[in-house]
Design a protein that fits this description.
Blueprint (H helix, E strand, L loop, with lengths): L2 H4 L6 E8 L6 E6 L6 E2 L2 E3 L6 H13 L2 E14 L6 E12 L10 E7 L10 H11 L5 E6 L10
Parallel strand pairs: 1-6, 5-8
Antiparallel strand pairs: 1-4, 2-3, 2-7, 5-6
Amino acid sequence: MSQAANQWPTAPHQCAGVILRDDQNCVLTVRQAYGLRLWGVPGGVIDPGETPHTAAVREALEEIGVHVELTGIIGTYLLTGGGWPDIQAYMFTANITAGTPRVVNEREIAALEWRSPADLPSPLLPDVAAALEDLRMGHAGAVRGVTRQLDLSRAPL
């Protein structure tokens, strides 16, 4: 048997994000300041040795300057296609416990907006779109694949 046949497939990259809602049920959206400048929610790559939970909390503080408490998991989404490696995304609901949302690092986040679920910005990251759909449908703990419809092959990782 060849060495290649003995190797397990590599694990996908992993990221975590938080969906924050205000009293009017508006969702805090952020626009990336890099690549295709897609809209999403606070979140990012899970660092080595970090859990999805701690990554989500850390990313909220680093990107929008707020402390959050996770209140639930909407789901996990395996993103495939679009010219990028596969990514396993963990999407959580959370409440702000301290701070006011603001752009902390302009190299990562270009803008933030509270948006009605009926009037979300575009283009929206596919894991965020899937999580918001699951949230709207009342699903919790979803586990599903999401095929990217955008060609991200020229966007930086």
